[in-house]
Give the backbone structure.
Amino acid sequence: MAYAVISGTTVLSFTSTTRSIGAVAKMAIDSGNAGTYLDQVYDKYVLFIGFESWAGFESSTYYKNIVPREHVTDVGNWQVLEGNVSTTNQIEPGEQSLQFRDYQSNSVIGSAYMDYSIDDVTYVTFRAKDTSDYDVAVSYSTDGGTNWIGAEIFELATSVATYTYTVASGVGTNDVQLKFDVVQPAVLVDKARVYIDDIQFFTNAK
Ligand SMILES: [Ca+2]
C-alpha cells in the first residue's frame, strides 16, 4: 500500500515503490481527498508531471535559455530550451507551469524534454495555452533521445484546453521519453508564449 500525506502543496510523508509522488498527489487531488490516499485504484496512471516546486521544479523569470536549463526532480530531469518553469500567467493560479517565450533576438526555438524514460505508456494528456497563434509539437523517443518520432502538432488557443497525444495502441510502449517543441506561426511575435502543464501518462498495461 502506498500513500501520500499532503498539506496544501507540501508533502508531509510518502511511501511508494511503484508510483511517483506526483502521480500519487494527482490521485489525491482527483479523489477530492487531499489527506491520505491509497495508490491502488488509479492504476491507469503511470506518471503525472505538474512542474511544481515541491516535486523539484525551480521556478524562474528567465526564459532566454540558449542552452537547455536542467530541472532536477526526484523522478528524473527535464531539459528546457528558450523557456522555464514559471509562476507568470500559469495555467493554475498559485501554481507553476512550463512556459516558453519566443525571443526574436536569438535563433533558438523553445523545446523541453524529459531526460529519463518510463514504461507502459499508451497515451499522454496535457493542458496548454498560447499567445499569438503559436502551437506545440509533441514527439517521443524510445532510444534515449537520439531519435524523436511520432511528431504531432497541436493547435493551441489563448484559453486553456486539454490535449491527448497517442503513443501506442494496445499494450504500452517502454522506454518512453516525451518532448515538446514550439511551433512558430508564419508571422513571428517577439516573446510570444506557450504554456504547458499537468502532463499525465496513461497505460493500458496490466
Ligand atoms: Ca502546474
